[in-house]
Write a structure and sequence with these properties.
By secondary structure, the chain is an alpha+beta fold. Helices cover 37% and strands 26% of the residues. The protein has three helices and four strands. The protein has helices at 17-30, 44-52, 80-90; strands at 4-10, 34-40, 60-65, 72-75. A four-stranded mixed β-sheet has the order 2-1-3-4. The radius of gyration is 12 Å and the shape is globular.
Length: 92
């Protein structure tokens, strides 16, 4: 089975982050082909990973098919349809 790595970057004080978290949680409850990691940028671990990927704002979502070079990036919360399309493309 092809899998997609999803990295979700949020801040606990961000008013827009709960919708991104809700979307990701909704999709992972419906699928078993996503490997999701959530990073809270206010923590040392989250801040370090955010720096590695040059995250400048939250919420930000990165999707990458396992073994693929292309990375899909959403700043803000995408529609469920756009998110699912990025998952599909990351696995093709």
């Amino acid at each position: 089975m092809k899998k997609t790595k999803v990295e979700l970057f949020i801040s606990l004080t961000c008013p827009h982050c709960p919708s991104a978290r809700k979307l990701v949680n909704e999709v992972i409850s419906e699928r078993d082909d996503l490997d999701v990691e959530e990073f809270i940028v206010n923590t040392p671990e989250g801040n370090n990973r955010a720096k590695e990927l040059d995250v400048k704002s939250v919420p930000m979502i990165f999707l990458q098919g396992m073994g693929k070079k292309d990375v899909f990036v959403f700043t803000g919360t995408p529609s469920k349809g756009r998110f699912l399309e990025a998952v599909r493309l990351s696995q093709s």
